[in-house]
Amino acid sequence: MQARRGIVTGGTWCVDNNRLISFWPEEDGIAEILSQELAGGGSGCNLAVDIRHLDPAMPVETIAIVGDDESGRFLRSIAEDAGIDHRQMHVDGSLPTQFTDAYASAATHRRTHLFAKGVAAALTPDHFDLAATSGRILHLGLPGFHKQLDSVWANGDNGWVTLLKKARALGLKTNIELASLESRVLTDAVMPCLGHLDYVVVNDTEIGALADLPTVCHGVTDASLCEAAARKVLEDGAMELVIVHWPKLAIAVTRDSVVAKKASVAIPPDLVVGANGAGDAFAAGVIYGIHEGWPLEKSLALAHATAACSLRSVTTSGSVVGWQETLQLADTWGWRT
User: Fold this and answer.
1) Residue 229 CA to chain centroid, in angstroms?
2) What is the SS3 assignment for 323?
3) pLDDT tens across 81-106, in order?
4) Rounded to an integer, what distance in angstroms lies between the CA atom of residue 142 and that of residue 72?
5) What is the CB-side half-sphere exposure of residue 231 using CA atoms within 13 A?
6) Which fold does the domain 7-333 belong to in CATH?
7) How does DSSP classify residue 8?
8) Sign of the torsion angle spanned by Cα atoms 30, 312, 42, 36
9) Residues 38, 61: contact at Cβ < 8 Å?
10) pLDDT for 26-38, tens place per residue?
């Protein structure tokens, strides 16, 4: 049997209406739109495109659902242009393609997203022919955005667990991407998945929700609580590795209690445009390194470097480059301590 190679992304593909605004206003306030750009978004799209930018020779497949509309055709063209195998990108004309109005503040570089699920709510485990894939790692996302996958599907399992069980039975390694939704949504949909995941790569807020620990308080991240939360999630699941990241630092904890920490890249502030997609870029760097068998510290370095590169664009993947150049840029900009 031929060895598996490549990445399979499954789940959210949406159209991002990216807008750079002067600042994020209070209710009843007003702000100026400085620029706008249409691009692909969502975990399935972002990670797939990022991986192809990091290494155009890496096979990438995707499984998703889009509407039979202009937006759906736009997303399919993105997959084609990036060289992503999109034979399992299903078209459903019953609902429009999912979209997000993604705002980036020029004043703070923080992001604010308003989204409509559209046809994403119709994605089910039946859309996934995992036996037809040849990839090694399955990257799923996003719980809370796909009604059918969030709900009970088979044998009392939700759709995500159903997919994870099938993937692992076929020999794929598994990872899941989260969005910073309310804790209840994350815990209801994601906690049952922990026993069927090989990797978890999440941010400081998300790990706190999964572990029920106050990892972020008044906007300040507690690194020690993030590490404790990672250990708790490991205990509750079957993962080989849990990684927690935020703008300053990443902490990785393995099943055998190896802990690795890596500070982020000191990208010059004048190069930063927006943070939309930075989390996906971080995940892409980590998953690429894991796939290639790199040491954990090098994978964390590529993750931070990829996230830093992504900050240079208002889009999620527009400024991600090859992995060698990515690491060179990070060394040029320097690393935080």
Assistant:
1) 19
2) helix
3) 999 999 999 999 999 999 999 999 99
4) 18
5) 11
6) UDP-N-acetylmuramoyl-L-alanine:D-glutamate ligase (3.40.1190)
7) E
8) positive
9) no
10) 999 999 999 999 9
